[in-house]
Predict the structure.
Amino acid sequence: MLATAADRREGRIQRLGNLLVLQYLSLNAFPCGAARNAMRRVLRPVSESNPPTTVTDARVANLAAKFEKFARKCSGVSPLYERLSLGIMRDYDLLSLAAEARADPVPNLLLAAVHYLLLAGERADLTDHYPDLVSVVACTDPYPSFRRFCLEHQIQLTSLIRSRNVQTNAVGRAAILVPCFALLAEAMRAPLAVIEVGASAGLLLAWDRYSYDYGSAGSIGPRSSPVQLHCQVTGEGYPNVAHSLPAVVFRKGLDLDPPDLDSVVDRRWLQALVWPDQPERLAQLEAAVEVVRRAPPNIVAGDAARLLPSVMDEAPREAVLCVFHSHSMYQFPEQSRMALLRAMRELGRRRPVFRIGLEAVKQRSYCHLELEACGSGLARRLAVTDDYGMSMHWVGPAALALQPSAMQPASLPGSIGQSTIGK
Ligand SMILES: C[S@@+](CC[C@H](N)C(=O)[O-])C[C@H]1O[C@@H](n2cnc3c(N)ncnc32)[C@H](O)[C@@H]1O
């Protein structure tokens, strides 16, 4: 069988792991201080493009603050990750291990790497604390087992957190995007062309193959879909979603490094990114992966800021062009966010282009769903939501009047992804 790109990458991780093993063995073969230090200098470059991190006290303190913040985020949602994060933030050894990560958010990355190894079948008593891996969870403190596991698996964990990125593809978020797509299709009386920026494996791009239950606010989508999403809606003026889902005539995703759903390794990484005590999210992920694998969307690998202009040009003119981004802008440098906005606004002056943003609000525990009519200077906040599409408070209109009176001036370029509209 041919190896997928992800499996080849796994081979690279393995090779990096081997290098680290060699480095470790060599260091321990030189117990005397001076010889050891000399050896350390010789062995330092693990690879030219991937040198070991220099752990400074400032970096460790900064990471401790990140784990503390992450523990607060997990409070009431994931008791396991809350406890582990509170332990890591006080543990110099584990913070030093976490310092090997190349990208943010480091807490998600380290915890996912541990989860990945357990999912891959690494046997340890830590497994007994993961609700998705055992039927009866141990009621003792998980931290001592977690710490031991991390120290025993430093090499594999270092390889993972250096080579992987947080690519959580939360299919439940589709429930937040759907009313916005429905509003746009109805207002414009045309099918949609959709492009997702930061698409990960493309699970959100398949939003029209899932079934949605909004409680008393209605339901929509193919009822027999294996992916059944439930979203609690509050607020006034929620749009009528009782019709069928809008037609999509063009769909494409952009991602720096799209996970390959045909690779066991990449599927396991997506699974590892789900918190172990959120079984409903795990079930949604597995169901969506199967749906998407049957007819995968086209995801172009590369920097979205560079690719977006040409991909937008491919979208048929008769369709309403919707570029959406969900929980991805925090991974883009400011310069790239500005480039994305500029491209959409420039094209928006020549044809209708809408930007739909679903992003976390900085320093807050909620997200905003926003709609911008690019190039018109008009935008509108539609909903305040949770992280995973379980609930939303609708603050937008029931029907879109794409006129200045129904919209608000969009804020200046550069603030994309951190709540663009108003304060
Ligand atoms: C946290 S995931 C979000 C996935 C999906 N939008 C969702 O909400 O489920 C963020 C994605 O953005 C991608 N990403 C980060 N920087 C990027 C860039 N410059 N160009 C394209 N994709 C990027 C990452 O590879 C990752 O898959």
About this structure: The CA atoms of residues 60 and 95 lie 6 Å apart. The two ends are 54 Å apart (CA to CA). The pocket of S-adenosylmethionine is lined by residues 165-170, 173, 198-200, 204, 254-257, 303-305, 326-328, 331-332, 336 (CB under 6 Å).
